[in-house]
Predict the structure.
Amino acid sequence: MKITSITLWQKSLPLAKPYWLSGGRLKFEVLDSTFVRIDTDEGISGWGEGCPWGHTYLPAHGPGVRAGIETMASSILGLDPRQTGPINHQMDLALPGHLYAKAPIDIACWDIAGQAAELPIGELLGGRYPEPIPVASSISTGTPREMLADIERYRTHGYRVHSAKVGADALQDIERIRFLEAHREPDEVVFYDVNRAWTRAEAVTVMNAVSDLPVTFEQPCETLDDCLAVRRVTSHPMAIDERLDTLNDMTRIVSDRIAELINIKINRVGGLTRAARIRDLALAHGIGISVMPTGGTVLADTDAIQFAQTIPDPYRLRVWSCQDMITVDPAPGRGARVKDGLLAAPEAPGLGVAPDEQWLGEPVAAYSLKRT
Ligand code: MG
C-alpha cells in the first residue's frame, strides 16, 4: 500500500464562549484547525486533525501545521501508511521538531492501518480496555463562586471530574482552592491546573498553604526545572502537562521523579506513535496518565479516546473533550460523543469517524505522488 496524495483543509472553530487560561493571561476565542486526508493506491483514505489551542498556548500554531505538512509531504508520498515507525522517521528527517504538524499525518496513517486491518486504532495500539473514561470539565479561571457555578453546570451533565484553572493570584488561588474543595462532592475529583502561571515562590506558597487538602496540582510552573524545585519542597501529587513533548521529556520526568501524573495531548506530542512510547514509559514507572486533544473537533476527541482506552486502570485518569466548547461540528452524531460525562471510542475500524467533506469546502492544499 502506498500514500498517493495528502489533502488539507483549514477551518476556523469558534469557541462557544471566550476561554481564559493561565491565570487570565491567555484568552482564546477561535481555534485554527487543519483537516488532513491521506489517500492510498488501495482505495483506503485516512483522516487526521491538527488543531493547536490558539497560537499563544504552546509553540504551535494553525498555519504551522499546514507549512510543516507542505515541507514533509514529498518525503512521505509513496510510503506505506501502515508503517507508522518509518513514516515518523521520514518526517523527522524532513523536518526536525514541529511535532504538532506531524500529529495529523500520523493519525491519518493509523486510521488507514486500522481500516486495512478492520480494527479500531485502539486495538492496534495494544488493545483497549472497554470501559468508558470520565471526561474532565474545563473550568475557566474566575471568582470562587463563578468557578463553582461552572462546576455545578457540568454536574448536571454527569461530569464528576473537573479541571479547575487557577494561577491568577497566589492569595486568591488559596481562596479558590479552599472554596471549591469545601463544595466538592465526595465522588468528585478536581485537578487544580495552573498552566505554568506561578513563579516557584507562588507555587510553594499556595501548595504549602493547602497542604491539609488531598488535591493534585498540574503544571504549576513554566519549566521542568521549576516544577522539580517546587516538587522538592511540597507534598501534593503533581502532573506535568505543557512541558511533556517528547520521550526524552518523559525520561527526565521519571529519572528526576518530577511528577506522579502526566497529561498526554496527542497533537502536542506528535501523534499516536509517539504517544504510545510515552505511555509505556509512564506505565513502567507507575505514573498516571490523562489523555487529551489539544483542541479541535470530534475527530481530535476520537483519536484521544482511541488512545486513552489502551491505558489500564488505575493509571487511566481522565480524558478531555473539545467538541462541546466549539460551535461547529464536522460529523454530527458520529465519532466519540460525550454521554453522562463519559467518553468511549467508536467500534468502527480505524479512527472511527470522518468529516463531511461538504462542510470542509475547498481544500487549501494537495500533494500527490507523481506518476512514473
Ligand atoms: Mg493542563
